[in-house]
Amino acid sequence: MKQIIAMGGGGFSMEPDNPLLDRYILKQADTAKPKICFLPTASGDSEQYISRFYNFFNQQNCDPSHLSLFSPPTRDLENFILEKDILYVGGGNTKNLLAVWKDWGLDIIFRKAWEEGVILAGLSAGAICWFEQGVTDSFGDGLEPITCLGFLRGSNCPHYDGETERRPAYHKLIESKKIQSGIAVDDGVAIHYKGHEIHKIVSSRPDAKAYSVFWEKGISERKLPTEYLET
Predict the structure, then answer these.
(1) Higher local confidence (pLDDT), 127 or 141
(2) Which of 23, 56, 127, 132 is most buried, by the most CB atoms less than 10 A from its CB?
(3) Is the pLDDT of residue 141 over 80?
(4) Is the overall model pTM greater than 0.85, yes or no?
(5) Architecture of the domain made up of 3-228
């Protein structure tokens, strides 16, 4: 079963005292103690980010590891990745993430992993990367569309409620046809895909939601059913 869990924001890096989304991700693996690998590429393999990953996941029932492309653990990255149960991609610069991944051939390896049942997860840059397009600030001057890996159809906009400019920018990009219709995701919300379809939308915050945003004689925004993961 192909699975992707795309978070608008949240998890250990944004909600260090709220484990709901990260525990949800762990529960989706078909094993009691999943092997979860963190990819901090978008942050330039930030040591602080990696440390925060281990601080959280070392306390969970899992086997955590990370993949740094500045200091690779092995030359055989394909086998290293395919033996994992979950790949967890951090936030940061999506443009740089995609460029580095493609240079290492990871875009091909990740598609193979996805097709073989490895769960792909991540937030912000680590969420939009799986879609055909995303809304990014990677270019350094406002929010722009970016072409991503295309495992999932349509576009994705993270931090929908967390950054004031996200919502109007996404609407404007869809209206001007610079980006296709898609899913907007509040911080604290994860969209769980099985195959190419939404299986479930879950949140770590009671009022956080996801939305279908599209053009239909004007911009339309439809709130999607979201399940709050109560402790």
Answers:
(1) 127
(2) 127
(3) no
(4) yes
(5) 3-Layer(aba) Sandwich (3.40)
